[in-house]
Design a protein that fits this description.
The complex is a heterodimer of chains A (about 200) and B (about 375).
Chain A (H helix, E strand, L loop, with lengths): L1 E7 L7 H16 L3 E7 L4 H10 L4 H12 L2 E9 L2 E2 L1 H8 L10 E8 L7 H12 L3 E2 L4 E4 L6 H19 L12 H6 L4 H8 L3
Parallel strand pairs in A: 1-2, 1-3, 3-5, 5-6, 5-7
Antiparallel strand pairs in A: 3-4
Chain B lengths: L1 E6 L15 H17 L4 E4 L12 H10 L5 E4 L2 E2 L5 H14 L6 E4 L6 H4 L7 H17 L3 E3 L7 E4 L13 E4 L4 H10 L2 E4 L6 H17 L10 E9 L3 H14 L9 H7 L3 E3 L1 H9 L2 H4 L4 E5 L7 H23 L12 H7 L20 H9 L1
Parallel strand pairs in B: 1-2, 1-12, 2-3, 4-5, 5-8, 8-9, 9-10, 10-11, 10-12
Antiparallel strand pairs in B: 6-7
Classes of the chains: A alpha/beta (about 200), B alpha/beta (about 375).
Chain lengths: ~200, ~375
Amino acid sequence: MTAIVVISAGLGVPSSTRLLADRLAAATAASVDDLEVVTVELREVAHELTDHLLTGFPGQALAAAIDAVRRADGLIVVTPVFSASYSGLFKTFFDVLEEGTLDGKPVLVAATAGTARHSLVIEHALRPLFSYLHAVVVPTGVFAATEDFGNRGLDARIARAAGELSALMGASTSAAPTGRRTVGDEFADPTPFEHLLQQAGAA
Amino acid sequence: MQIGIFTVGDVTTDPTTGRTPTEYERIKATVAIARKAEEVGLDVFATGEHHNPPFIASNPTATLAFIGAQTERIILSTATTLITTTDPVLIAEDYAKIQHLLDGRVDLMMGRGNTGPVYPWFGKDIRDGIPLAIENYALLRRLWQEDVVTWQGKHRTPLQGYTSTPRPLDGVAPFVWHGSIRSPEIAEQAAYYGDGFFHNHIFWPASHTRQMVDLYRRRFEHHGHGPADTAIVGLGGQFFMRRNSQDAVNEFRPYFDNAPVYGHGPSLEDFTHQTPLTVGSPQQVLERTLGFRDYAGHYQRQLFLLDHAGLPLKTVLEQLDLLGEILPDMRKGFAEGRPPHIPEAPTHASLVAGAGGAKDATVYAAADDVTGHRAEEQVAQVRA
């Protein structure tokens, strides 16, 4: 079984961001056998995200979302464009992830906006963010302005991006060792104190 | 089981009056709180160490000695001693000194400190936090255990033939706890030495406290100090109580909503659900506290944080009175179902007994009391 998490940062109900997210998920499901899809509406954990910034730990729903991301084989992330970039809510979710959570994980990036003038937000804002987080960003990012919905060009881009995501998950690198030790590793198999002493130079 | 309080010495505005205490008032309040802690029958008072506003917690040994002079019985400790930015040579000297002054009524809790900017004030770098905690503590132990230390490390100047004075009281160093909120390395450090491990506990969900304490217990056993359930564990805690639980909620809410750590974040209801904070009646505080064992196992030291969020001194003293009232039941509750092989927290007396009795550890140096020159150096000079 393959598992993906869809992160949607749309604020309206219904939202065009969620609409695009659902179409990307459906297209991915069409090309991956036995795909498990978990969708996270960031609006529903917006308070918990702010609380996490202030307290340093996630509430129950946010903890479940973060855990789903950690275990996922790939992500579909969709944000509305606010002030020429991803929304603050969208960024906050990725700000609270433990370092290394997205290491080697295939991520399909997508954005919605009221005008096509924002289309390069994919390349200017989303791609660098996920490169920084050591994710493997799907070559085709999907941008949809209001006028793109119902347009055949969008269908083609969705299909191509979903196909690329499936291919990358097939060759997923997320299981490959990265050399990074997570907090989970430290609890399961702590660095022996003798080694910590050596590192500290106080043999 | 030791039950006590700890303070971080923050100067915080009372949100209900808009008044901020002066440093003088806060410092004196700390002393009044410590004296009250002894009066109501608590076992431990611990003070933090900070070197920046809004804290008045610099120079903890002066504070502890001053309190020690006005108390008889209560153990004085730290929460925490900054092992990263404080020279271990000074820690060795200062705490051995108050050990003598207080007849052994002292122990310490090591911590790394809270903010990056503090480190460079003491010539350090927060990125070295863990290595500093490890190297400095390794040196501190030697300074207490060995009369003459020759040492070289990465983070301070080398020592040659150095003797830390005074030597520990009765030849036994103060017991050391290691406090850490999130770093598994520090739980590992505490386990390696068979020292105590203290988890702040407050502001964190029980699941997190459990994994830190579990790790320490598991590694304590791994390093050969005894079964995991005999490891020495301390926990923080936080409450606000009134005889009527709704009164407690109403009175504490403005303090909660504006508190420095969690204020303007989660609701009081969410936070009391997610963390050990208990706001309610004495009975509720009692039951919640006794429930900490469900995820931490039988433990040795429970410290509450009471003077925070701008609560006035009068209110804090009332909280201590209420704690004193439920203290007998709390002790009884902690004793219930506690297997006989679970040890108590080490004290000076138990450490002395464990070392086979008190021995004076004074190092007598044959030195000229004016120049500090030793006789053998003078002989060496004559020969040269």
